[in-house]
């Protein structure tokens, strides 16, 4: 007569039996995780500037137009219902009928309205976000931008590593980089040559879509006294 197996041995045997019974073919099918390589088979597109949403100007203009149109529609509806027009509209219509168009305030109001319209047209046609520099697009569905101040700081740090540089000032635009350096020792031509080489490599390592032109100016600090 055999003795019953201990409980621990029975559980281990069951786990081994269940593991042996599993077949890889019986495992449930799972969809592969998509990667960027699957979506970016085509050639990389040219990077364009980032467009600003311009929420503040849009909100201000929308509120002004909404308030003016609502007030005007209310006054027109009141006149249609048999009430008198508002006093401001009667006075405005009377002054516009009596005043000639060559008055100074009429011309000033027309110039202000034209300037406002040109400003709104400029905002609508320009992308804005000048602080973001578009970077090269390695993938079609990925866009990246570099902050202008961060790029200036990176180039300034590279310039400060050159021997003979006392201080450096970098101003970066989308098409040009201007660097002004004060050198307190070494020949200016040697310092400028090293800066051209170091900053040229630094601009290339930024990964910008359009490589900006580099302008370096080196001079001695002003003498005291």
Give the topology:
Blueprint: H1 7-21, H2 36-39, H3 55-80, H4 87-98, H5 104-125, E1 132-134, E2 145-147, H6 148-160, E3 165-172, E4 176-183, H7 188-205, E5 213-219
Parallel strand pairs: 4-5
Antiparallel strand pairs: 1-2, 3-4
How would you characterize the overall build of this protein?
- The chain is α+β, with helices and mostly antiparallel strands and 225 residues long.
- The chain is 49% helix and 13% strand.
- A hairpin with a 3-residue loop joins strand 3 (165-172) and strand 4.
- The longest helix is centred in the first third of the chain and has 26 residues, at 55-80.
- Mean pLDDT is 78; it is low at 14-20.
Q: What does the average pLDDT come to?
A: 78
User: What string, H for helix and E for strand, traces the elements in order?
Assistant: HHHHHEEHEEHE
Instruction: Work out the helicity level.
Output: 40-55%
Q: Number of DSSP strands?
A: 5
Structural class: alpha+beta
| Cα shape | elongated
Unreliable stretches: 14-20
How many helices in DSSP terms?
7
User: Span between N and C termini?
Assistant: 114 Å
Rounded radius of gyration (Å): 36 Å
Main β sheet profile = 3 strands, mixed
Strand content: 5-15%
Strand order of the largest sheet: 3-4-5
């Amino acid at each position: 007569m055999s003795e019953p197996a201990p409980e621990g041995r029975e559980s281990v045997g069951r786990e081994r039996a269940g593991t042996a019974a599993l077949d890889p073919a019986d495992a449930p099918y799972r969809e592969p995780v998509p990667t960027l390589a699957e979506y970016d088979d085509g050639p990389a597109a040219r990077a364009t500037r980032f467009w600003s949403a311009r929420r503040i100007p849009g909100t201000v203009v929308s509120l002004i137009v909404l308030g003016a149109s609502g007030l005007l529609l209310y006054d027109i509806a009141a006149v249609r219902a048999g009430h008198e027009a508002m006093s401001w509209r009667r006075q405005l219509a009377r002054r516009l009928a009596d005043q000639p168009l060559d008055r100074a305030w009429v011309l000033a109001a027309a110039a202000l309205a034209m300037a406002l319209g040109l400003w709104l047209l400029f905002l609508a046609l320009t992308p804005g976000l000048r602080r973001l520099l578009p970077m090269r697009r390695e993938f079609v569905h990925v866009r990246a931008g570099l902050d202008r101040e961060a790029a200036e700081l990176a180039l300034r740090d590279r310039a400060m590593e050159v021997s003979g540089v006392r201080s450096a000032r970098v101003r970066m635009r989308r098409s040009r980089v201007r660097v002004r350096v004060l050198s307190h020792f070494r020949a200016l031509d040697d310092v400028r040559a090293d800066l051209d080489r170091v900053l040229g490599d630094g601009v290339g390592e930024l990964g910008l879509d359009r490589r900006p032109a580099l302008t370096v100016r080196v001079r001695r600090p002003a003498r005291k006294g």
